[in-house]
């Protein structure tokens, strides 16, 4: 979707919009007083820049991102407010759902046609930065982009060839969410361990064979597999560029995925793909409560909640955060930088692009408008605004705190490599598709997965 936002907006509208929207926050080790002072300074600098706008030459930027409808709406409003503050800058936006997005943007990046400002996945830095040549070094624009608001270790993870390729937006991890309305109708408890998970499968099948307590697509199954293995064996999936699991250990996880299908805990992939939905939050069976559980990013909670609350056929269903299901003696699951904001190396206006990033992540006005649509931000300035004004999506804040407390394993930078997670040709999609269709048994699926991951890792 493409859309140019008109620059002519009244100050009254901008003020009303700012007051009516919630804010997003983040985490950092910086003191809140320092963050607040930095945020005030940023606001003052932005105001001064706006006063001098009449003397500026016109600048045109393009900003691209993916997400759900609520993220699109909030980001467009933030962009509009940014243009109100900087009238000489016009921002054209491009956005859509995740399906097919990476492939499209990869072609734009490699072809030199990328947007000036891009929302990127963390792994894009390794996959598409050209070792520091395709994205601008944001340290060159620290006069307009306050990098002191972000944790130094998170910034280091966003570098290639010693250059800062992106600013980390948020840290995230996956956890379980349930449609409690459906579980109450079926008459079974929310799962907390392996036994209660399979008990739910039996109860759902008895209630209605079209109903399932949990739905996992191909990539979800890969993340669930790692969660299960880490819970049972207590080892990270990849460390120092090497898979830490044997074929036999991986096969136990594949066998468990098969048991979930056999036990009516999850639908087959043929069933999910036959629903003809781009993503689970847009799947009618999720919206109407037939799929009653997901294993998703904390930053995605609001779009899944909105889908069930606003269901036409079954409105106001109760969406809740679940416990981490216990499969072993360890806390499985990993955390990662959820996404970053980068500037194309081909941008004709990298300074103004960096100003837009600073506005979205560090400026109090931009923070309030953005809410928690990209998760709980890393920016200390954003955390201060969130805390002081008690703003942000309470569900996302609760989910982020829960996953950060539980999940301690690291994520390898190539885990999300396009060769692995691309739909439909990535290793994850091929392996779990063949496992679900019985073209692979657990052992064959484990071997295919291990071979594919090792090839991507260069082993």
Task: Tag the structure with descriptive keywords.
459 residues; 20 helices; alpha+beta; eight-stranded mixed sheet
Question: Could you explain how this protein is built, in words?
Answer:
The chain has 459 residues and is of the alpha+beta class. It contains 20 helices and 12 strands. It has helices at residues 11-20, 32-51, 69-85, 101-110, 124-128, 152-156, 180-186, 194-207, 218-233, 247-262, 269-273, 284-287, 301-309, 350-361, 364-370, 380-389, 394-406, 418-421, 427-436, 442-457; strands at residues 2-4, 59-66, 89-96, 117-120, 159-160, 163-164, 167-179, 238-239, 242-243, 293-297, 319-321, 335-343. Strand 8 (238-239) and strand 9 form a beta hairpin. Helix 1 packs across helix 3 (69-85) and helix 9 crosses helix 19 (427-436). The longest helix is centred in the N-terminal third of the chain and has 20 residues, at 32-51. It starts with a strand and ends with a helix. The relative contact order is 0.19.
């Amino acid at each position: 979707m493409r859309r140019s936002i008109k620059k002519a907006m009244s100050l009254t509208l901008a003020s009303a919009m700012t007051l009516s929207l919630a804010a997003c926050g983040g985490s950092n080790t910086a003191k809140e007083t320092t963050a607040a002072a930095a945020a005030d300074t940023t606001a003052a600098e932005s105001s001064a820049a706006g006063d001098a706008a009449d003397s500026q030459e016109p600048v045109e930027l393009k900003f691209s991102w993916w997400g759900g409808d609520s993220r699109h709406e909030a980001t467009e409003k933030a962009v509009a407010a940014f243009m109100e503050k900087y009238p000489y800058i016009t921002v054209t936006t491009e956005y859509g759902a995740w399906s097919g997005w990476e492939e499209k943007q990869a072609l734009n990046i490699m072809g030199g046609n990328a947007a000036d400002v891009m929302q990127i996945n963390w792994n894009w830095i390794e996959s598409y930065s050209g070792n520091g040549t395709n994205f601008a070094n944001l340290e060159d624009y620290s006069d307009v982009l306050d990098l002191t608001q972000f944790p130094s270790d998170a910034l280091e993870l966003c570098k290639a060839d010693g250059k800062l390729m992106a600013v980390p937006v948020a840290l995230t991890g996956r956890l379980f969410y349930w449609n409690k309305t459906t579980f109450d109708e079926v008459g079974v408890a929310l799962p907390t361990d392996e036994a209660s998970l399979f008990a739910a499968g039996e109860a759902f099948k008895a209630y209605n064979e079209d109903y399932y307590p949990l739905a996992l697509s191909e990539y979800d199954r890969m993340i669930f597999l790692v969660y299960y293995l880490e819970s049972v064996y207590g080892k990270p999936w990849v460390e120092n560029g090497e898979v830490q699991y044997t074929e036999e250990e991986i096969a136990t996880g594949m066998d468990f995925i098969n048991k979930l299908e056999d036990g009516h805990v999850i639908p087959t992939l043929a069933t999910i793909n036959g629903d003809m939905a781009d993503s689970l939050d847009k799947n009618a069976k999720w919206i109407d409560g037939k799929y009653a559980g997901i294993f998703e990013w904390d930053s995605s909670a609001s779009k899944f909640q909105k889908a069930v609350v606003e269901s036409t056929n079954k409105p106001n269903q109760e969406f809740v955060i679940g416990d981490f299901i216990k499969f072993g003696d360890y806390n499985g699951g990993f955390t990662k930088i959820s996404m970053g904001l980068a500037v194309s190396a081909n941008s004709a206006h990298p300074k103004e692009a960096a100003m837009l990033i600073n506005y979205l992540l560090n400026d109090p006005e931009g923070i309030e408008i953005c809410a928690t649509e990209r998760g709980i931000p890393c920016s200390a300035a954003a955390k201060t605004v969130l805390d002081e004004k008690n703003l942000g999506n309470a569900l996302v804040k609760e989910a982020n705190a829960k996953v950060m407390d539980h999940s301690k394993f690291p994520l390898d930078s190539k885990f999300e490599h396009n060769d692995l997670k691309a739909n439909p040709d990535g290793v994850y999609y091929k392996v779990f598709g063949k496992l679900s269709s019985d073209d692979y048994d657990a052992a064959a699926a484990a071997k295919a997965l291990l071979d594919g991951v090792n090839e991507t890792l260069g082993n």
